[in-house]
Specification:
The chain has about 500 residues and is of the alpha+beta class. It has helices at about 10-20, 55-65, 80-90, 110-120, 165-175, 210-220, 230-235, 255-265, 285-290, 290-295, 300-325, 350-370, 370-395, 400-410, 415-455, 475-480, 485-490, and strands at about 30-35, 40-45, 105-110, 125, 135, 180-190, 195-200, 250, 265-270, 275-280.
Amino acid sequence: MEAEDRISGNLAENRRLMDRILRSEKSFDIVYRPVKAAGRQAGFYFVDGMVKDEIMEKLQEFFYHLKPEDLPDGTKDGQKTAKEDQESSGGGEQAPWTAIPYVEVDAADSPGELARAVLCGSVSLFVDGIREAYIIDCRTYPARSVQEPDKDKVLRGSRDGFVETVVFNTALIRRRIRDTDLVMEMLNAGESSKTDIVLCYMEGRADPALVEKLRSRINGLEVDALTMNQESLAECIYHGKWFNPFPKFKYTERPDAAAAGILEGKVAVLVDNSPSAMLLPATLFDIMEEADDFYFPPVTGTYLKISRFLIGMLTLFLTPLWLLLMQNPQWIPPSLEFIKVREAVNVPLILQLLILELSIDGLKLAAINTPSMLTTPLSVIAALVIGEFTVKSGWFNAETMLYMAFVSIANYMQASYELSYAFKFMRILLLLLTWAFQAWGLAAGVVLLCILVAGNKTVSGESYLYPLFPFDGRQLARRLLRRRISFEHMEKR
């Protein structure tokens, strides 16, 4: 490394170098605060808004009271730095940078490393006559409180959830897994964003090949920034077939669900600025599981699991089967005559179903962007206009509205948005094939659905339908049935 790539013992030169790298003259939030340290000129570099004023006051008070003998003499070119002095002496003497009264303190002589530390929220201290700078990790990010997520709610259980600060999220997992085998491996990606990424896994339980694969792919990313956080990372580390809508990752905003997955041998990927964790590898059965399945007794948990699976299949096949029967009314048995459309059909049923599929998504987007104080009155207005007047006007039939209302509500029986939209896309495909080719079209759609699901692979390359294919009876029973916790632990032992 060339001399100009290192910090010198001259504070003025160091300040000019850091001002040029950080562009502090143009950026108002890059602050340089001069201070005295043991009678020498010194200064802090930090980002305004990422450091608490109380901490900075305590640090300044400490350095004002330092004595000259507390700092190393690094003015000569051949002099060792404080860290090198400690290493050469075998660590017997305490280096001055370790005496700074804060939890995380380190020393560095690389301007690039110091600039990255400042932009990440740490404080960099430069002292005249010292050929290195001190990194004081006293950052504090603006963060919301740890509260229950809006999507992954449970009827019983903990009410905390992940937030946008990755350190808080790792602490929530550590609180639940107090084991020395738990590894929190910090990586970063993005030339401009330098986004922090944490791999959380249990040493000895997680697949070492998967951990190494994720580590190498994250370290090998050549992207400018992870603008969409986890979704950008997911698209970079998994180059799957874009036309397959079934999700390859399980997302959760619950620390208890993430901890349970880690204990089962999965790898949790946490991305800074993202309030959720990615669990890998994830099969179809993993994605359909929820925390409520395990917060209730075995009988209730089994009922919830099976009902979620059956309702998911019902949302997928209900409207295509009804459309097929409406096209072939002679197939309807006398006991099901009531499912026939009673009133005149002014708009073809296939168009009614497709328009309602799009309208439901439009209402979802409108509800997201509607101010909270107007959500209730606008919902009532939408229900009256769409539900009643569209039927009276002849645009839609009451039967079509009924079945689509059930499908739209039943889609919320699982927490995974990705899986819900995968079912939606498959349902639209089944509707189009059924309308065009009737029974043969529905059969072809079912075959195509099976091919897409069976041909899907997890990130680790395993089957997406495990333990159904390849078949593992014990694991399949464990996925479909809620067994007693004690029995599961006995099997692991």
